[in-house]
Design brief:
With 484 residues, the protein is an alpha/beta fold. The chain has 3 domains: 3-95, Udp-n-acetylmuramoylalanyl-d-glutamate--2,6- Diaminopimelate Ligase, Chain: A, domain 1 (3-Layer(aba) Sandwich); 99-326, Mur-like, catalytic domain (UDP-N-acetylmuramoyl-L-alanine:D-glutamate ligase); 334-483, Protein-Tyrosine Phosphatase, Chain A (Alpha-Beta Complex), CATH 3.90.190.20. Helices cover 31% and strands 25% of the residues. The chain has 15 helices and 24 strands. The protein has helices at 3-6, 53-58, 84-95, 114-127, 156-169, 180-184, 214-222, 240-243, 297-310, 317-326, 352-363, 382-395, 411-422, 435-444, 474-483, and strands at 13-16, 25-27, 37-40, 63-66, 77-80, 104-109, 132-135, 139-142, 145-148, 173-177, 193-198, 228-234, 250-255, 262-272, 275-284, 289-292, 334-335, 343-347, 370-374, 398-401, 428-431, 451-455, 462-465, 468-471. The strands form 4 sheets. It has an 11-stranded mixed β-sheet, sandwiched between helices. α4 (114-127) packs across α10 (317-326), α11 runs parallel beside α12 and α14 packs across α15 (474-483). The radius of gyration is 24 Å and the shape is globular.
Length: 484
């Protein structure tokens, strides 16, 4: 591929050299520079790629893409653009053959519900015979391969490479989580989404190296609805009109209230032996009687969203119902059957907001006791520990404080901080530092009607201690307890 072909889709100015040269690779990491590559100079939080432009030219780079003039040697071409991250998205797409144009693309943004909804959509589509790639917080799925995720939305070069692999694998569609960071840093800029989804928004990711205000967070989320054909949004969210401000897409709304294009009604909480779920009916653009093996009102919203999305595919209602009934998301209200007398689940809730939402949802199922097992990560804000302790003490009938990822802190010090938060409440609690023993305790002492939640680890299958990650999967720990 020539440089001219690679940069043809972006506004640019050639300030040195020629565009008529062959390109061997596209690179944005200065450690991967090679002869004949195009080096995109990206300014990151800790390193500015522009400072490596001279080195790139010494190593024989075909071109450097820059936001301002730089010193180079030899015949390396210098291409000036307004924003190198934005340019990189289009360059990466062109280099990989514009793979998103050959896939039905579904992008999901929101504070909560992104991960669960992506899996629900994938479950329905795959059940109907589509081959679907997935990109999200937990993993990237390409055919039979499951690749652990480093970012919710990968850098544009990595993202476009994944999309190309999906095309090569024969995928028909891709469903992906689109984070506010991913939108802000233009990682998805070269993708014209067929469907853009908004689940909800609450203050989150506000601080250094993220968003300086809730308004900026909201503005970044709204960018998705200027680069999709159809926007499917939660009409009940109080910020939905802000999200849609300046949108260029056709809009469909889902929700529980009047005015939604697809509305859920007659909602019932379902509880069986070691099982929690929801059932509801829909009206509007599609009418079905649905049941999902996930608890709570937010599971109704997630399921309703998935139904609204899959209506745009050639899928009959029976396939939608079957997929919803059997859908599971690793580490997201993931029920593990250990007894017909009580319910045990694993969830990723690892901050006060998520834990409060989870425990409030579970209390609605009127448990005999609500038991919460959790710890907090080391080398992170102590405020999170106090807040989570206070939330669990207030909402759970019994809190079992244990270890999470202590990192370079002592587990007992973290536990003491959590106890400080719980002490502000009347909640009962005990501390069992060893996580396996904490799990053993709640299983062996489970009572009829209990709902027990193991919070904080979710999909993680390791425990980080003193800079090393040790294998630790709660599903395996549960089985070991049952087998002992």
């Amino acid at each position: 591929m020539t440089l001219k072909e690679l940069i043809g889709g972006i506004v640019h100015k050639c300030i040195k050299g020629s565009e008529d040269k062959e390109v061997t690779a596209v690179v944005y990491d200065s450690r991967k520079l090679c002869k004949g590559c195009v080096f995109v100079c990206v300014k990151g939080a800790n390193f500015d790629g522009h400072s490596a432009a001279a080195e790139a030219s010494r190593l024989g780079a075909a071109a450097v893409i820059v936001e301002h003039e730089v010193e180079t040697e030899g015949d390396t071409t210098v291409i000036l653009v307004e924003n190198t991250r934005y340019a990189m998205a289009y360059i990466a797409s062109a280099y990989n053959g514009n793979p998103s144009s050959r896939l039905k693309t579904i992008g999901i943004t929101g504070t909560k519900g992104k991960t669960t909804t992506t899996y629900l959509i994938r479950s329905i589509l795959e059940n109907a015979g589509y081959k679907v790639g997935l990109i999200g917080t937990i993993e990237v799925i390409i055919g039979d391969r499951h690749i652990p995720a480093l970012n919710t939305t990968p850098e544009s070069y990595v993202l476009q490479d994944y999309l190309k692999q999906m095309v090569d694998e024969g995928c028909d569609a891709v469903v992906m989580e689109v984070s506010s960071q991913g939108l802000m840093l233009h990682r998805t800029a070269a993708i014209d989404f067929d469907l853009g989804i908004f689940t909800n928004i609450e203050p989150d990711h506000i601080g250094p190296n993220e968003h300086d205000s809730f308004e900026h967070y909201l503005e970044c989320k709204s960018m998705l609805f200027k680069q999709c054909r159809v926007g499917i949004v939660n009409g009940d969210d109080k910020h939905v009109e802000d999200i849609l401000k300046g949108h260029t897409c056709t809009v469909e709304k889902y929700g529980l209230n009047e005015g939604a294009d697809i509305r859920a009604k007659d909602i019932e909480f379902v509880r069986g032996k070691g099982y929690l779920g929801v059932s509801f009916k829909t009206e509007g653009l599609i009418t079905i009687n649905a049941q999902a093996d996930l608890p709570g009102i937010f599971s109704v919203y997630n399921s309703l969203c998935a139904i609204a999305v899959c209506r745009h595919f050639d899928i009959d209602k029976d396939n939608i119902l079957k997929a919803l009934k059997g859908a599971k998301v690793k580490g997201r209200i993931e029920m593990i059957h250990v007894s017909d007398d009580f319910t045990l689940m694993i969830d990723y809730a690892h901050n006060a907001m998520a834990l409060e939402s989870l425990l409030t949802t579970l209390k609605a199922y009127d448990p005999g006791r609500l038991v919460c097992v959790f710890g907090c990560g080391g080398n992170r804000s102590k405020l999170r520990r106090y807040e989570m302790g206070e939330v669990s003490g207030r909402l759970a009938d019994l809190t079992v404080i244990t270890s999470d990822n202590p990192r370079f802190e002592e587990p007992l010090d973290i536990i003491k901080d959590i106890e400080t938060g719980i002490s502000k409440t009347d909640g009962k609690h005990i501390s069992i530092p060893d996580r396996k023993e904490a799990i053993r305790y709640v299983i062996k002492n489970g009572m009829p009607g209990d709902i027990i939640v193991l919070a904080g680890k979710g999909h993680e299958d390791y425990q980080e201690i003193k800079g090393k990650k040790y294998p630790m999967d709660e599903r395996i720990l549960i089985q070991e307890v049952l087998d002992s």
